[in-house]
């Protein structure tokens, strides 16, 4: 069966990690290595008695914080059964011998999290949030250089022996030694993942929600848009297929720039890789590694499939919100057995996967169904809450040494340095951690590196320290935003909880009315336009970051048709 002409289905699940699975490394025909937030690296081998099943053959222990990037060392004199290179948030890269499961080298030198590892012949090359690339030979550092002005998120080696890096500065760079041969410009946010596309160029995955295929001359050959959130990883197969993993809980399969399949997961997809046989391996935030296949003899049995879909359904229900409440928190149909207190009283109950509104009919002593309650934004767009206050982000920060996870709140409009200062004081942590906390904020919020004065500021007023000879009323480093208390409001009015499905239903209702009117039928939308509108609404509903590449010219034309051509009484939902 051709792998580019069939849909991927679940083959098997690899369970053992106790937290998010962050990275995947395909180790030739030897097996699969995975890394996790649980601080371990696991090496899985195929069960000889069942070609679908993998077992954890080795568990590599040594990192003291999250483990991310991995690289495979093919068998050689030093590593007769191969080896693994891992990078962690503990600033270390480690080299492991798979024959013994022991750590051979600990590569110390980076100042911040190691984000990428690659093999260059027998050398190890590592990238870091500290903006540097480092080359290691037999466990010793032989060179390092600042490769970007912002955090480096990934590094890979090309067949031509050059290196490619991706950074939070939104660019890719092509390196020959320490010389930058070319800078690739096009993404509008952090470049998070990289992969080689044989005979064509290099693939990049970005926080801007897109995947790009680049020629090594820096020209964009193809842009793939379809994810509704950060794209963390990308990989290619000899068949020409591409796979990507995203925060939107989907792994997507691409063919000739078109998404041909979306594989839903019960959590964020941190990484996705192809096996040589065309199967896909995904790493999910639920702690499970999954294998997906198009080969009928490797598809999971009915019990395993039912278990997966049941778990997926429960995950979706736990995230779904109705009228601002989680669906799972709504009362069930048994609530309709209790009479209402007054005529017209309304309640919302859970019916299957939906919320349904009922009104109490005092005369007939029964609950009358009003209709389905339009869903509010789900958890992917809802702002997290800490101590009763909403933020753009609430990060989990692991400071190590057996300490509990700390919560770090942050808004994108905030000054990250002020945020770091306040947080360090609140948590009674050394101010020497300040720059590391700022880098953590910028990296995990997907923002470009700030160009800010990093001198001391009072963490509560934002003011600089007093310097003798300067005016005492010097402006604060972070100006106070004006608050508009009166109308007319002169700024942008933001609707961050729009009922997009309700809007779509109303447009469809008006469109049916136009189609039934012979004089106005020409103004109605075609089936193709309706389908495109559904896609646009899905993007608007599920993402919190919009950019010019999200929508095509045809989408703009569709919006204009609704606004300019439809009767005045019908243009409001448009």
> Total number of β-strand segments?
37
Number of domains: 3
Q: DSSP strand (E) fraction?
A: 35-45%
CATH superfamily of the largest domain: YVTN repeat-like/Quinoprotein amine dehydrogenase
**What's the total helix number?**
6
Shape: globular
User: What structural class do helix, strand and pairing data support?
Assistant: alpha+beta
State the end-to-end CA separation: 45 Å
Q: How large is the radius of gyration?
A: 27 Å
Based on the coordinates given, report the CATH architecture of the largest domain: 7 Propeller
Q: What is the mean pLDDT? A: 82
In CATH, what is the class of the largest domain? Mainly Beta
Side-by-side strand order of the widest sheet: 1-28-27-26
From the 3D structure, determine the CATH topology of the largest domain: Methylamine Dehydrogenase, Chain H
> What percentage of residues falls in helices of 4 or more residues?
10-25%
Flag low-confidence runs.
376-381, 452-486, 544-548
Largest sheet: 4 strands, antiparallel
Protein name: Phospholipase A-2-activating protein
Domain PFU: 359-455
WD repeats: 14-54, 84-106, 145-175, 184-224, 224-255
GO biological process, one term: ubiquitin recycling
Would you give an account of this structure?
The protein has 574 residues and is an alpha+beta fold. The protein has 3 domains: 8-316, Methylamine Dehydrogenase, Chain H (7 Propeller), CATH 2.130.10.10; 325-372, no CATH class; 500-570, no CATH class. 15% of the residues lie in helices and 37% in strands. It has a 4-stranded antiparallel beta sheet with strand order 1-28-27-26. Strands 2-3-4-5 form a 4-stranded antiparallel beta sheet, with no helix packed on it. Helix 2 (416-426) crosses helix 3 (434-445). The model is unreliable at 376-381, 452-486 and 544-548 (pLDDT under 50).
């Amino acid at each position: 069966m051709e792998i580019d002409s069939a849909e991927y289905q679940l083959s098997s699940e690899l369970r053992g990690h106790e937290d998010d699975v962050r990275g995947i490394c395909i180790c030739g025909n030897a097996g699969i290595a995975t890394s996790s937030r649980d601080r371990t690296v696991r090496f899985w081998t195929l069960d000889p008695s069942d070609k679908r099943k993998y077992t954890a053959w080795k568990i590599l222990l040594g990192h003291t914080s999250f483990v991310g990037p991995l690289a495979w060392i093919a068998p050689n004199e030093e590593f007769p059964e191969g080896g693994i290179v891992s990078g962690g948030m503990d600033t270390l890269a480690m080299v492991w011998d798979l024959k013994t499961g022991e750590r051979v080298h600990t590569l110390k030198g980076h100042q911040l999290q190691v984000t990428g590892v690659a093999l260059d012949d027998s050398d190890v090359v590592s990238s870091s949030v500290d903006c540097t690339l480092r080359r290691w030979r037999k466990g010793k550092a032989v060179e390092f250089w600042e490769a970007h002005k912002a955090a480096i998120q990934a590094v890979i080696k090309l067949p031509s022996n050059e290196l490619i890096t991706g950074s939070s500065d939104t660019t890719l760079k092509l390196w020959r030694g320490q010389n930058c041969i070319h800078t690739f410009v096009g993404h509008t946010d952090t470049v998070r993942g990289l992969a080689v596309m044989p005979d064509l160029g290099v693939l990049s995955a970005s926080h801007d929600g897109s995947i790009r295929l680049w020629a090594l001359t820096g020209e964009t050959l193809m842009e793939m848009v379809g994810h509704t959130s950060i794209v963390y990883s990308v990989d290619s197969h000899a068949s020409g297929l591409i796979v990507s993993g995203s925060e939107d809980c989907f792994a997507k399969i691409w063919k000739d720039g078109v998404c041909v399949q979306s594989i839903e997961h019960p959590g964020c997809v941190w990484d996705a890789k192809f096996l040589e046989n065309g199967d896909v391996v995904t790493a999910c935030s639920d702690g499970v590694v999954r294998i997906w296949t198009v080969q009928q003899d490797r598809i999971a049995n009915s019990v395993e499939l039912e278990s997966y879909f049941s778990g997926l359904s429960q995950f979706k229900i736990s995230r779904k919100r109705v009228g601002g409440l989680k669906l799972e928190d709504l009362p069930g149909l048994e609530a309709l057995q209790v009479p209402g207190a007054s005529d017209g009283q309304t309640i919302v109950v859970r019916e299957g996967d939906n919320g349904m509104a009922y009104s109490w009919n005092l005369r007939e002593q029964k609950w009358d169904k009003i209709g389905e309650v339009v869903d509010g934004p789900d958890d992917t767009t809802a702002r997290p809450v800490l101590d009763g206050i909403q933020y753009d982000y609430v990060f989990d920060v692991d400071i190590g040494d057996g300490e509990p996870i700390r919560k770090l709140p942050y808004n994108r409009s905030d000054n990250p340095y002020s945020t770091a200062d306040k947080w360090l004081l609140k948590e009674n942590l050394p101010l020497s951690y300040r720059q590391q906390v700022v880098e953590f904020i910028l990296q995990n919020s997907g923002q470009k590196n700030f160009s800010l004065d990093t001198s001391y500021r009072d963490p509560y007023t934002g003011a600089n320290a007093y310097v003798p000879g300067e005016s005492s009323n010097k402006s604060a480093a972070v100006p106070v935003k004006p608050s508009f208390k009166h109308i007319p409001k002169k700024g942008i009015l933001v609707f961050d909880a729009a009922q997009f499905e309700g809007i779509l239903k109303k447009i469809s209702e008006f469109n049916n009315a136009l189609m039934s009117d012979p004089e106005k039928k020409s103004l109605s939308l075609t089936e193709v336009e309706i389908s495109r509108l559904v896609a646009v609404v899905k993007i608007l509903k599920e993402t919190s970051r919009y950019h010019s590449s999200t929508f095509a010219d045809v989408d703009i034309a569709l919006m204009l048709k609704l606004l300019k051509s439809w009767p005045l009484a019908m243009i409001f939902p448009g």
